[in-house]
Specification:
The chain is of the alpha/beta class. It has a domain at 2-154 and 174-203 and 264-271: Rossmann fold (3-Layer(aba) Sandwich). It contains 11 helices and 10 strands. It has helices at residues 2-5, 8-23, 45-57, 72-84, 100-109, 131-140, 158-166, 181-191, 215-225, 230-233, 236-246; strands at residues 33-39, 62-68, 91-96, 116-122, 142-153, 195-200, 203-205, 252-255, 258-262, 265-271. A 7-stranded mixed sheet has the order 3-2-1-4-5-10-6, sandwiched between helices. Helix 2 (8-23) packs parallel to helix 3 (45-57), helix 6 packs across helix 8 (181-191) and helix 7 runs antiparallel to helix 11. The longest helix has 16 residues, at 8-23. The structure holds S-adenosylmethionine (SAM). S-adenosylmethionine binds at residues 39-42, 46, 68-71, 74, 99-100, 122-124, 127-128.
Length: 274
């Protein structure tokens, strides 16, 4: 429902096709094989778009593609999509069903630890315990001219704001950090690394959330707050507070009878240290 009501996927696809492809043209230093790590790839839809852009920029180059994803179900969906997709003969996938910290442990145990040319973490930094350590570890894996891509919601994004509003009142959202792109930039600034930032500005249509009992609106509210059956569980005051956020004049607009609220993200492209 969320993805149906906003342009997040489209925006990300456009970013990959129009911006990221140029950023990645110099990775690999002319080698015949490029190593990529997808961290928290989920079902891998964006990974496949990145692979297709990389293949255009680096024709005849082998892609050594490692996926780090703790959810077996998501990983399975990703593998099934790969099996159905043609023109992936030049990609060698390695499936690591594990968290970033388990991957780090495994990496430290290997005798000849490998480096990578491109690493991405798309909408996943909310779930790690120590973001600075995770960024530090993966950034340290980059080869010369390598790039690390981090995509994270902006602090104005309604998902972050709605989840924060209910957190502690109605739910304890376990293992979710509410980290925004601004927080990630602070981590990068403290680490003294250089990066470029690209705004992925978009709104989500939340009109249906204002019709109490509307099935789509209730599902959307559940997603935005991360609480199943939010309207049933929330006090009238809390529900009213969340609806106020959805109509916050600084972050929302009403256009042709629709209520659109900020659901922007930022893409941070971090350079290797060398
Ligand atoms: C919001 S999804 C994003 C999926 C995908 N990158 C995308 O943008 O469509 C977050 C993903 O991070 C994964 N994840 C959660 N905790 C993680 C961890 N500690 N290490 C690696 N991935 C993690 C989840 O299983 C999930 O697939």
């Amino acid at each position: 429902m969320y993805l149906n009501r906003c342009d997040e996927d489209l925006l990300m696809s456009n970013f990959i096709e129009n911006t990221l492809c140029d950023i990645l043209k110099n990775i690999g230093n002319g080698k015949s094989q490029i190593t990529i790590i997808g961290v928290g790839s989920g079902e891998g839809n964006h990974d496949l778009e990145m692979i297709s852009q990389l293949s255009l920029k680096h024709p005849r180059v082998l892609l050594d593609y490692k996926v780090v994803e703790p959810s077996g179900q998501q990983l399975q969906h990703f593998r099934e999509t790969v099996a159905r997709t043609s023109n992936l003969e030049h990609v060698k996938f390695t499936w690591n069903q594990m968290s970033t910290s388990e991957f780090e442990e495994q990496w430290r145990r290997t005798n000849v630890p490998e480096k990578a040319d491109f690493i991405h973490m798309v909408q996943m930094m909310y779930f790690v315990e120590d973001p600075a350590a995770v960024i530090g570890f993966f950034h340290g894996l980059l080869n010369k001219n390598g790039k690390l891509l981090i995509v994270q919601a902006s602090s104005e994004n309604i998902v972050i704001r709605a989840m924060k509003a209910v957190h502690g009142q109605l739910s304890q959202i376990e293992g979710f950090s509410f980290l925004s792109a601004a927080d990630i930039k602070r981590v990068l600034d403290v680490g003294g690394v250089t990066y470029q930032s690209y705004e992925l500005q978009t709104d989500i249509d939340v009109t249906e959330c204002f019709s109490e009992g509307d099935e789509n609106g209730e599902l959307l509210l559940d997603f935005l707050t991360s609480v199943q059956d939010f309207s049933k569980k929330a006090s009238p005051e809390l529900r009213a507070e969340v609806l106020r956020l959805l109509r916050d004049p600084q972050r929302s607009v009403e256009r042709e009878g629709r209520v659109l609220v900020n659901s922007s993200a930022e893409a941070l492209v971090v350079d290797a240290s060398h």
